[in-house]
Amino acid sequence: MSDSPSASGGGRNTRHPTGIRVVVLVLALMALVLGPAGYLMGTNAQSHAGSAAEWFTLSFGAFVGIPLLAAAVATVAGDRRAALGSLVLLAWPLVFVSLIHFTPLGG
């Protein structure tokens, strides 16, 4: 089975897998930057009681929501490889949070 979608009507495929992969890459980079930034801001929040919860909520949205959005975009475009790569990003929060809390890297 091919990774590229077939064209309707047997004609030439007019979809642009490179463009979809660029969009998925941009969304992946956003998830890899915004998720950890929000989590670290949440762990360092001390101004008021709701601040840490707000940062953790934003971090969760970036960690989980952006990869799911990227997978949805790639799925609609018919690019299975990019969709699978986006779903693999869902493991990143587990790795990042483990590094922060279980190693000396987290401080």
The count of β-strands is 0
- What's the N-to-C terminus distance? 48 Å
**Oligomeric assembly:** single chain
Strand content: under 5%
Rg estimate, integer Å: 18 Å
Q: How many strands, what sense, and barrel or not for the largest sheet?
A: none
What structural category characterises the helix and strand content? mainly alpha
Give me the number of helical elements. Answer: 4
Sketch the topology as an H/E string, one letter per element: HHHH
As residue ranges, the low-confidence spans are none
Helical content stands at over 70%
Number of domains: 1
Overall morphology: elongated
Q: Which whole number gives the mean pLDDT?
A: 83
Keywords: Membrane, Transmembrane, Transmembrane helix
Walk me through this protein's architecture.
- The protein is mainly alpha-helical.
- It has one domain.
- The chain has helices spanning 17-44, 49-77, 80-88, 92-102.
- α1 runs parallel beside α4.
- It is elongated, with a radius of gyration of 18 Å.
Task: Please give the structural blueprint.
Blueprint: H1 17-44, H2 49-77, H3 80-88, H4 92-102
Comma- or semicolon-separated keywords:
107 residues; 72% helix; transmembrane; transmembrane helix
Could you give a short description of this structure?
The protein is mostly helical and 107 residues long. The protein contains four helices and no strands.
